[in-house]
Write a sequence for this structure.
């Protein structure tokens, strides 16, 4: 099998042909069937320890297209990872187009008659914007940069929502110039600033971001539903109600609904049901006090994914069914029409669709510790340093009979905290030149990448139907030097 590269094409119009089929719904664990072929593929190797959630031989958190070859290589999207590494170098990020599309469709099935917006902050490039648009999703952006990239790719601005706790004047000007669909008001000071920027004779649709006072999320730094963080307007102290009154008094702003976002890596439905109940209560108070019935309710995203075998992830189908039932029941009890629902998945679409490839540079054994240093690190994936997250890296492209030993996969940067995966099992004979693959690498890796040590950011390569193409090229030293224009 060979890797074929093609030049990325400019964005086409809306899809007219049937979407490319995908063999499984990746949000349904029972449907994650791997392709098998008695002569070329095996579905799973014998686990080193079936109870170990870091077992790298378990393919459950990999893209649904992943298959193992006899030489211990893996194919994703029909393309061997060793060929991708040889052709494009390392580090390289691999994005499975079919997995992205299948996850988009799973959300549309779980939330019929709702607006599903892909959260661009998880990862955005022109191809990603093109794929989610073709699959029928809208877009949630946080800056003028994300917005400009999407619109110049051909994304309809009316299907885009602009977020942000501190939108710059340029963010707001760009949103109004391009005709963004909705803007989420995050503070009272933003109300007058936005209203003054709206052209005379027009109205801008806005939502109010409400803090419902619900603690949820996988880490304190990604919990945004409580009053002790920077986002939104509090329901408890009346800030949200005050902002709503002020917006209703602005003739150039059209309040169309409420918004909330509880946090990230949430794996249970209960926090969302609590949020719906509190927001329906606020909708009822708005109707009673102002005689206004708001037609939209956006409950954000934050749906958790499993980074290692055995970890919990959000059941998207159950979430959709229970949230819609809770919303319908609450509105019926309050005598309100059911507002149109909006959800904003990001990680749950991009994360499991991506794989990071690294080359081992050195192996150092110090006392009881083994450090496997690779050619990437915190500049392309800061999440372990920020949140202490754990991954399940895997040796690919070489069959080893050595027993697994616990190692720390570390990066190349001059920082003791540059650890990509601590205490994970890899073959005891792991050595320089080996290829290491890390699944669930599609979200909040490259979107949060830095210029630390001037290493340069890795490329993004899309795989589909046995072919590969570069979506985002590797950042070169010339790119970095070109920005440095002074002495």
């Amino acid at each position: 099998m060979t890797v074929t590269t093609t030049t990325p094409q400019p964005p086409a119009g809306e899809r007219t042909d049937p979407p490319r089929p995908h063999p499984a719904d990746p949000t349904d664990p029972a449907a994650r069937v791997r392709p098998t072929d008695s002569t070329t593929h095996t579905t799973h190797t014998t686990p080193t320890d079936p109870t170990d959630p870091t077992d790298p031989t378990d393919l459950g958190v990999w893209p649904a297209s992943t298959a193992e070859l006899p030489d211990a290589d893996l194919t994703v999207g029909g393309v061997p990872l060793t060929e991708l590494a040889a052709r494009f170098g390392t580090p390289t990020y691999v994005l499975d187009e079919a997995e992205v599309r299948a996850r988009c469709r799973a959300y549309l099935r779980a939330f019929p008659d709702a607006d599903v917006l892909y959260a661009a902050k998880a990862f955005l490039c022109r191809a990603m914007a093109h794929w989610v648009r073709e699959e029928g999703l809208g877009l949630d952006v946080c800056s003028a940069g994300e917005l400009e990239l999407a619109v110049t790719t051909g994304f309809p601005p009316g299907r885009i929502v602009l977020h942000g706790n501190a939108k710059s004047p340029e963010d707001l000007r760009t949103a109004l110039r391009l005709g963004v669909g909705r803007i989420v008001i995050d503070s009272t000071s933003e109300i007058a600033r936005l209203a003054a920027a709206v052209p005379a004779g027009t109205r801008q649709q806005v939502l109010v971001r409400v803090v419902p006072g619900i603690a949820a999320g996988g880490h304190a730094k990604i919990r945004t539903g409580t009053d002790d963080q920077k986002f939104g307007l509090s329901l408890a102290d009346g800030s949200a109600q005050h902002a709503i009154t002020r917006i209703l008094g602005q003739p150039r702003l059209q309040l169309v609904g409420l918004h909330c976002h509880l946090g990230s890596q949430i794996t249970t439905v209960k926090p969302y049901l609590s949020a719906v109940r509190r927001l329906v209560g606020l909708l009822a108070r708005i109707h009673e006090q102002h005689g206004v019935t708001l037609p939209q309710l956006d409950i954000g995203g934050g749906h958790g994914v499993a980074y290692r075998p055995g970890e919990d992830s959000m059941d998207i189908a159950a979430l959709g069914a229970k949230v819609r039932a809770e919303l319908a029941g609450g509105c019926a009890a309050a005598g309100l029409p059911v507002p149109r629902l909006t959800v904003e998945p990001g990680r749950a679409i991009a994360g499991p669709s991506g794989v990071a490839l690294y080359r081992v540079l050195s192996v150092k054994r110090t006392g009881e510790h083994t450090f496997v240093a690779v050619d990437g690190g915190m500049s392309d994936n800061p999440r372990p340093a920020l949140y202490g997250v754990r991954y399940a890296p895997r040796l690919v492209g070489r069959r080893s009979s050595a027993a697994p030993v616990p190692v720390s996969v570390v990066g190349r940067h001059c920082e003791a905290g540059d650890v990509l995966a601590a205490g994970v099992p890899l073959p005891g004979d792991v050595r320089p030149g080996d290829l290491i693959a890390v699944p669930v690498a599609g979200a909040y890796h490259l979107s949060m990448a830095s210029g630390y040590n001037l290493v340069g950011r890795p490329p993004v390569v899309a795989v589909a139907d046995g072919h590969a193409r570069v979506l985002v090229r590797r950042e070169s030293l010339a790119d970095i030097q070109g920005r440095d224009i002074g002495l």
Observations:
- The longest strand covers residues 354-366.
- Confidence is low (pLDDT under 50) at residues 1-24, 26-53, 221-226.
- DSSP finds twelve helices and 21 strands in the chain.
- The longest helix spans residues 270-290.
